[in-house]
Design a protein that fits this description.
The chain is of the alpha+beta class. Helices cover about 20% and strands about 45% of the residues. The strands form three sheets. The protein has a six-stranded antiparallel beta sheet. It has a six-stranded antiparallel β-barrel with strand order 12-13-14-17-16-15. Strands 4-5-9-8 form a four-stranded antiparallel beta sheet. It comes from Pseudoxanthomonas composti.
């Protein structure tokens, strides 16, 4: 796979019914345009194999006249077989800082210029998330962003506080790196009295609800478990503190890139 020109948002967003209606494209002409735009931008795509959530990076390669698409395969035959066995791929990407999300199903393994690839029907719908609170910031390595989560230790026992590294953050929630023993984290599980600690902001009390748990391969042979969690009823003033941290950090990053 060639180097992408666009950054990628790795974790699938969990949308309310209102958001889904507002940000989802169903018109085939609009979907074709957006698919072709991702191809032209050589945008990297995080394909989450569902169920299970294993993340496999890929890219859209071609859009054919018969309304099928070609996506890049993996160098590993094992991963390619898992793709074929998945019910569908939940694909996440970015285009001009706008988050794109769609599903691919009924994938067929083919060969493209001597490399494995997959052909599938064009997505029936695509989501374009443009709300500022859904912009995700990957936490810079220089920042120590931690969320303390009280986890039940069992019936009649006091909760154990776990300090979990925050991998990325938006105004709507966080992605947390989970410990080896992460059985307490599963979809719909709610954690109250959590504490998010942001540089130059301090401690922010939050309630978290788990949206998904997935495996993220950072490099061959090394993977971590992550959990995407949404903020529950986060007060407006605290949401603004989170957003201000995100935009301040992003501005600093852009300024450094311009100096290079």
């Amino acid at each position: 796979m060639s180097e992408p020109d666009q950054p990628v948002a790795e974790a699938p967003a969990v949308l309310s019914a209102e958001d889904e209606e507002q940000y989802t494209l169903h018109d085939p002409r609009e979907v074709r345009w957006l698919v072709q735009s991702l191809i032209d931008a050589r945008a990297l795509i995080s394909a989450h194999l569902m169920p299970g959530g294993l993340n496999s990076p890929t890219a859209l390669l071609e859009l054919y006249d018969d309304d099928t698409v070609l996506i890049d395969g993996n160098h590993s035959d094992v991963v390619n077989q898992r793709v074929l066995q998945a019910d569908y791929l939940m694909c996440v990407s970015q285009l001009d800082r706008v988050r794109i999300q769609f599903r691919l199903h009924d994938l067929e393994l083919v060969e493209n210029e001597g490399r494995p690839a997959f052909q599938a029907p064009m997505p029936e719908w695509m989501v374009r998330l443009q709300r500022r609170e859904l912009f995700r910031l990957a936490i810079p390595a220089s920042h120590q962003v931690v969320c303390t989560v009280p986890v039940s230790a069992g019936a009649g026992l006091p909760a154990v506080s776990m300090d979990l590294r925050v991998l990325d953050i938006s105004g709507g929630g966080v992605a947390l790196m989970l410990p080896d023993n992460h059985s307490a984290f599963h979809p719909k599980k709610r954690f109250e009295r959590c504490e998010l600690r942001l540089p130059e902001v301090g401690k922010i009390p939050v309630t978290l609800e788990v949206c998904y748990v997935s495996k993220l391969e950072q490099r061959p042979g090394h993977a971590i478990m992550r959990s995407g969690c949404r903020f529950v009823d986060l007060p407006f003033n605290l949401e603004n503190q989170v957003l201000n941290y995100i935009f301040r950090t992003e501005r600093a990053r852009n300024a450094r890139e311009r100096e290079l």
